[in-house]
Amino acid sequence: MTYVIFDLEWNQPFANDISFMKRTGLPVSGEIIQIGAIKLDDNLELTDTFSTFVKPQYLTRMHKHVEKLTHISANDLAMGVSFVQAYQNFEDWCGKEAVFLTWGSDDIVMLRENLKLFGLPGTIKHTWYDAQLIFAYLQHGNTQQVALSKAMEELNITQDELTAHDALNDSIFTGYVCKAIPLARGIAQYEQITKNTYSQAYFPEPISFFIYENFHDKRKVLHDNKVRRAHCPECQSLLTTNKIQRLSGDKFLSIGRCPHHGLFGVHWRIGKYMKRNRELSYYVTKTLTAAPEELQTLYEERAETNRKKEEAYLARMAAKQAEEDAKQEFFNNNDKIK
After folding, report:
1. Maximum distance among all alpha carbons in the chain?
2. CB-based contact 136:142 (threshold 8 Å)
3. How far apart (Å, rounded) are the C-alpha atoms in residues 166 and 162?
């Protein structure tokens, strides 16, 4: 078996500028500017490396934060190749039998977004595993996100004078971690590990995408009728949607039913951006996908989790109110005695 561990660096819009998504009509949050990867054999020994810069087509100005973090300059990118060429070179280098590993799921999400952005099939051909999830599960018994640098520190792995936030170097660091843990055991348990994972990487590909902006109160975004309503991407019939459930952070999910074409997943993500007058505003993206059994199960499980959280919260509030009432009654009785 050949393992390919890869890492991506990508440029971002300035000040959370949403014009990038509006121009492309896609839920794309960045443009890939570097692909780095390593090959490992069955014994997780390094056999080859790959690295290329990608010349951006949309986000041609480097974001200052990205440039500072990655040390990638506009001159570096000017020497790069197009994304289509870069990805073709990467695929040729990987070979057909490679198994992918990344640190976290963001790279897979970004890769799928950029494949669609440049008119390539969005489906990743290779089996993929999230090494970050495997590490967290094997080391800590959970799926909490762990920074790559923190994982290396826990395992007493040094950087060997390599700098972080370089796509090739981060792939090498991930390889060090994979070799230091029982990776095969983690892969064998991967279905269980990912059972309650809410990453977009595990969702079906987008069928349709919408973006709404100019919200001043984040709490009211999902109460807006045009945001909540969803239509069948096949016949435009209004979908009958279940109660919106929070997945994690500012990500939400509902299952919608079309009387003619069945079930669809309706996904919302709330973000913030700065207007030209420096006024902070909120936007929300709405994405429709297929709704396979796994997504329906995720929705049901999250609905049950949220229900229990709400019940626990209400119970705490009731207990707190009862305590306040008891204190007030005590003081009132004391006043009567006096």
Report:
1. 89
2. yes
3. 9
Convert the pLDDT of each residue in 92-106 to its tens digit: 999 999 999 999 999
Return the H-helix or E-strand segment holding 23. Answer: helix 19-24
Residues 104-122: tens digit of each pLDDT? 999 999 999 999 999 998 8
pTM for this structure? 0.83
Q: Per the structure block, which two tokens stand in for 6?
A: 């890869």
> How far apart, in whole angstroms, are the C-alpha atoms of residue 244 and residue 90?
39
Residue type, 48: D
| Cβ atoms of 272 and 217 closer than 8 Å | no
Domain spans in the chain, listed from the N-terminal domain onward? 2-197, 206-300
- The whole-angstrom separation of Cα 322 and Cα 326 is 6
Number of neighbouring beta carbons within 10 Å of residue 139: 16
Task: Give the tokens for residue 309.
Answer: 């959280």
- CA dist 71 and 44 (Å) reads 29
- State the CATH class of domain 2-197: alpha beta
Whole-number Å distance between alpha carbons of 333 and 338: 9
